[in-house]
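In the previous chapter we treated chains in isolation. Here, by contrast, the input contains two separate entities that must be folded as one system, with a combined length of 828 residues.
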Amino acid sequence: MNPDAATIAAGAPIEVDLAPVAEGQDIKVFWRGKPIYISHRTKKQIDEARSVPLSSLPDPQTDEARVKSGHEQWLVVIGICTHLGCIPIAHEGNYDGFFCPCHGSQYDSSGRIRQGPAPANLAVPPYQFVSDTKIQIG
Amino acid sequence: MSGPSDFQPTNPVLRWIERRLPIFGLMHSSFVAYPTPRNLNYWWTFGAILSMMLAVQILTGVILAMHYTPHADLAFRSVELIMRDVNYGWMLRYMHASGASMFFIAVYIHMFRGLYYGSYKEPREVLWILGVIIYLLMMATGFLGYALPWGQMSFWGATVITNLFSAVPYFGESIVTLLWGGYAVGNPTLNRFFSLHYLLPFVIAGVVVLHVWALHVAGQNNPAGVEAKTEKDTVAFTPYATIKDLFGVSCFLIFFAYFLFYMPNYLMEADNYIPANPGVTPAHIVPEWYYLPFYAILRSIPNKLAGVVAMFSAILVLAFLPWLDSAKTRSSKYRPLAKQFFWMFVVVCVLLGYLGAQPPEGIYVIAGRILTVCYFAYFLIVLPLLSRIETPRPVPNSIADDVLAKTGRKAAPMVSAVIAIMVAGGLLVGGAQSAKAEGGEVAPPAQKWSFSGPFGKFDRSAVQRGLQVYKEVCATCHSLSFVAFRNLADPGGPGYSTAQAAAFASDYKIKDGPNDQGEMFERPGRPADYFPSPFPNEQAARAANGGAAPPDLSLITKARSYKRGFPWFVIDFFTQYQEQGPDYVTAILEGFEENPPAGVTIPEGSYYNKYFPGHAIKMPKPLSDGQVAYSDGSPTTVAQYAHDVTTFLMWTAEPHMEARKRLGLQVFVFLILFSVLMYFTKKKVWANAH
């Protein structure tokens, strides 16, 4: 009952062009049936994410560990709430990040859980930069 | 009931079979000669009611499966086409969908009855545990079935529930992938859910056979809670129990028919009339009402794994009931304390159900935690403790004594029980209702509709004018893809003739092909064609409308709703008010205001609408006075347009409504007469037994 060969093949890596995404904007792409949020973060959002003391986080993780160095403005996360799998809304909530309408979990501008029932941060999918304006997810 | 039967058929053919397969003897000893306690009350008829409901579900389900397509792209449409095109398809589907709710109402009464009268105690432990297994299987089947229409609630309910398993340490993710058959809920998930949904009812039927077998070995419990000792304590199953069950079943069918023919969507979520969309989460994901108490327990625990464990424990604890409650006295009738706590427990379950439908914030979370503690305390503290400290009242010597003592004094506890159950049901249902999409701060004003109430009919000329408004205004942006031109000539619709419908169709250009050259071409519409959509696909619709795709209007009056709140949902049940959708649609059409009130800013490209949730709607004011020229002299005002087009859209959402209400009336008359007959037959049969 595990995924069949066609499903696995359809889950191959995809490339996403980041050039049209302006600062402060974000796009949602689908990979393996999951929504992936790609945010072009503002300076303010990056600073906010980096100034939070780790000890105050329910799932401590530095912002540096969640983005690729040299591409700090890009946050790539799987847009699936770690509580029960709803899709959080970008640019909502008290932390300049994501807000899940189902059970009220709030994530910050690094996709880390700050408030609500979700146990973990939004997952970062495997991805790398192919060029400065293009990433490959998967 | 046990041991070889001495039944001998008189017919030689039957006797020939009986010698080789003693099936008639088995039937005779199980359902004719089988002795039942003579003091059983009507709570004991729910066993028969449940058997009937299982049969109804399997029968309607098998026929529905003949018309249903288990594919993510086609499932929603195939369910809608069952409602529209299959002969009595609307009845089959509503019977199956509201039948699930009826099944659960009956099983909850059945379980509470077992709890109250101590039916789980020695020697009926296995019987009880088999019942818990049936209940678990029912929950699984209900959940799998709810996913099949592939609406928004189906999809997101499936996502949330399958994600529960990701809480399992180490294996969680692999279990979830195994359930999905992919990387997310999708087509493989739907396929396996369909397969399992078809399988499990037969497993239930198998366990029901074991359940009945165990029942017939141990014998039925009874309100006095003393075992049958002599012949005087029992009566034969047939005719005594059979006729009583038949009367119970016919009364239950009246209740069922009320939902089926008059309130078919009362227990359903409006959001499930929106096709599944993996990119949009509904504001409130609410399970079906029968899971709400357990959903409340899940959410009241802040830790994910602990929440899931608590939820499953809440059901599994039932299986240990025979050993948690070791009191010798079975029936709570003779246990003054246990009786009190039983009713408190019922109230706790109902309140948990109510909380399960509320948003998980503030006071609801705290109340949920307190009630979760109460729920478990009942099983783990109260019952074990009571069985040690409580002094029960003396039980009657025999069932016959109980029956004799009862003549004259009666009813009072029964009445209170009935009231409690009704309050319970009302609140639970209300919980589900109030959890529906919150339609903004201002509730749409209630309109007067020709189609409301038990005798409601569509106003033909309003439907015709509404069609004109749709064609001239709405159709520029909104599709109507579930309605075909031939439907315009259907009985119960706008009342056009077949020729008029064909002429209407020929005004449209329909894309067809490919032809022999492999090219697509346009041709005039035929009656069998569906209304063409203004945009080739959703993306095009989105791009042309500032990022918000105009929704399909075929089902809009059923797919939109607003919060009614307490106590309206209770009143609505009796007044049969179910026009939230039409009220909302009209309100939206009339709710545009040029200048938003002070303090409200509307983003560029959006418009202020008083009744739209959030008030910023992407649709510009669609209607203005005099825009559509009516030929029948009706006023050409926005209010009239809105009223007409909503009437039309109610017909497109529920094209067989008139047939449904007409058949409902006939069924009601029949069922009431049947019940009255059954009641007097039952009285006659039991006359010499009391």
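Chain A has one domain: 21-137. The helical segments of chain A are 5-10, 43-51. Compare these points with the single-chain example from earlier in the chapter.
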